[in-house]
Amino acid sequence: MFMKRIRLVVAYDGTNYCGWQVQPNGITIEEVLNQALSDLLGEDIKVTGASRTDSGVHSLGNVAVFDTGTRMPADKISYALNQRLPEDIVVQDSRQVPDDWHPRRCESRKTYEYRILNRRFPDPTRRRDTYFLYYGIDVEAMQKAADLLVGTHDFKSFCSANSQAEDTVRTIYACSVRKTEDIITIRVTGSGFLYNMVRIIAGTLLQAGTGKIRPEDIKEILDAKDRSAAGPTAPAHGLTMIGIQYEE
Amino acid sequence: MFMKRIRLVVAYDGTNYCGWQVQPNGITIEEVLNQALSDLLGEDIKVTGASRTDSGVHSLGNVAVFDTGTRMPADKISYALNQRLPEDIVVQDSRQVPDDWHPRRCESRKTYEYRILNRRFPDPTRRRDTYFLYYGIDVEAMQKAADLLVGTHDFKSFCSANSQAEDTVRTIYACSVRKTEDIITIRVTGSGFLYNMVRIIAGTLLQAGTGKIRPEDIKEILDAKDRSAAGPTAPAHGLTMIGIQYEE
Questions:
Q1: Is A103 exposed, middle or buried (0-12, 13-18, 19+ CB in 10 A)?
Q2: Is A122 strand, coil or helix?
Q3: A11: nearest CB among B13, B82, B123
């Protein structure tokens, strides 16, 4: 049987899942994909994901690969798979890639958005994908702080204390903060992110937005290389992985 | 006991409700509000709503009134009530109004939005408040058709055949169709709307957008005064009541 490697782009509403990665305590995106693919193709399929998003985090474009002997054309797999997936997981694209292509070993740029709903009362139609805050937030101060994160830095202060990561140097290519109507969106693109890094960035930029820190304090926070120097980890449901751009 | 009349502005995600109005077959927004208000104020409260939205329809600003003998300041009721409401119903404002003020008997302008997600595959994070269509849609043709709805017309063709309404003349002040990224938004403001009218407008404008009818056919559809002349009723979950402006 000739095997081929298929790359999927996967979108999901993470509300009802315990994150991406298979784990004993609850249902995960990876597990649902494995099951639907195995049923569809009649093989035991195990996907490998690019970003192991946390419980409650959403995605518009996570990437996963798997190997299969199927004769089904690669681009038809997305349509057939979506018939078997629940409505909160939708494959956006399926295509063949070289047999040695790996979603975490290729150079890439990942983009995430963290969204804050900033108004007097919550909007129930946006409760699943925005973090609600009623108090005044200075978006300009957040942008000034965000500017200081751009570049190649040791982001140890912005990494969960539970992480085992040895190399905590990462590159942030862009970090913008903009407000449209009542939603503040932090959009960050980087070479890769440490465990909880985007949510800690969001929690720290919000401290700049409420005057708890000055924007220029970001430098000291980076220099400290200590998780306790940065702000709190913002809640998972405000975070959406937007997509991954690979160097071809 | 001195009674006073309180006006609420109510937002909700309609996904899990059988619409606004109390009915035997399932839980409704009105019923949940009545229960929460009665519990909060220790009186038997029954609200009167401005717009009796259908099952699955959302709202950012429906309006309701009730009478109460409470001493609680009117503007504090919203905060106390939200503590008792589920997270998919959030009161946005509470204030006292004259004792004879009625949300359906005052001159008003109501605004609704119907949202269509137009891309290759569904976005699971927008599945609750957009209607997904993958095929190409001509937004300009939709706008040309929408322009012909503006004004005072007999909208009998755009009224559910199940409606008992005798007077089917209504005024549409504005009807715009715009596309932002992959979402087409039909925004319509009128003096009032017949049963299913906005969803039938959406279904008919979509027929113009796909070339099934020509934009100018709207005139004949209005003249027909017959439900079967207009397009299908678009699904409820794409519809959001945006708000109501009252003449003071």
A1: buried
A2: coil
A3: B123
Reading the block at residue A15, the tokens are: 């509300």
DSSP B74: H
Report whether B115 contacts B124 (CB < 8 A): no
**CB of A125 less than 8 A from some CB of B:** yes
**What tokens does B171 get?**
């005024």
Judge: A125–B13 Cβ closer than 8 Å, yes or no: yes
Exactly one of B54, B88, B182, B223 is catalytic; name it. Answer: B54
Pick from A13, A58, A123: which is nearest to B60 by CB? A123
Q: With beta carbons less than 8 A apart as the criterion, state whether A52 and A28 touch.
A: no
Distant-in-sequence, close-in-space partners of A71: CB < 8 Å, separation ≥ 6: none
Q: Is the dihedral of CA B15, B21, B24, B29 positive or negative?
A: positive
Separation CA B118–CA B136 (nearest Å): 8
Residue B13 forms contact with A (CB below 8 Å): yes
3-class SS of residue A100? coil
From the list B121, B127, B129, the residue facing A125 with the nearest CB is: B129
Are the C-beta atoms of A188 and A241 separated by less than 8 Å?
Answer: no
Contacts B11 to A, Cβ<8 Å: 121, 123-125
Token readout for A225 is 């290389």
Binary contact (A125, B78; C-beta < 8 A): no
State the smallest CA–CA distance between residue B86 and chain A in angstroms.
10
Work out whether strand B183-190 and strand A89-97 pair parallel, antiparallel, or are unpaired: unpaired
Nearest CA to B241 out of A120, A125, A130 is that of: A125
CB contact under 8 A, B124 and A90: yes
- For B96-138, the pLDDT digits (tens) are 999 999 999 888 999 999 999 999 999 999 999 999 999 999 9
H or E stretch covering B150: none
Beta-carbon separation of A123 and B90 below 8 A = yes
How far apart, in whole angstroms, are the C-alpha atoms of residue B143 and residue B208? 9
ipTM (interface pTM): 0.91
Residue with tokens 């058709």: B145
Separation between Cα atoms, residue A179 and residue A161, nearest integer Å: 31
Reported as a single tens digit per residue, the pLDDT across A24-53 is 889 999 999 999 999 999 999 999 999 999
B39 is catalytic: no
Q: Is the four-CA dihedral A223, A228, A231, A234 of positive or negative sign? A: positive
Closest CA to B47 of B81, B8, B74: B8
Query: What is the residue type of B83?
Result: Q
| Nearest chain A residue (CA) to B58 | A125
